Hints:
By secondary structure, the chain is an all-alpha fold.
Amino acid sequence: xxxxxxxxxxxxxLFDGIEEGGIRASSSYSSHEIxxxxxxRAMEGLQxxxxxxxxxxxxxxxxxxxxxxMLDRMGNDMDSSRGVLSGTMDRFKMxxxxxxxxxxxxxxxxxxxxxxxxxxxxx
Length: 123
């Protein structure tokens, strides 16, 4: 893709009907009538484009605000889940540090393994 061609295409779309020396006029009007008529037509076209650009920039602004709010909520959720996860890890560390807790964990793990073995044998 040629960026110069895109720029010319975009510029031509924005300023279609307007030439470098002014607006091309038909020969049925006097020079003053032609200038005013063409100027008003060009002003209406530019006004429509300005309104379109204003609406488009407003839509972009709303979209950016929406995404910023969503990212803030996601950041807050990540912070809260990080807190919960660190609390859980602290509890696991406490469980594995004591000997009686290790025995309890071994007992629970062995019951789970026995239950799974019996479950698969009866299926």
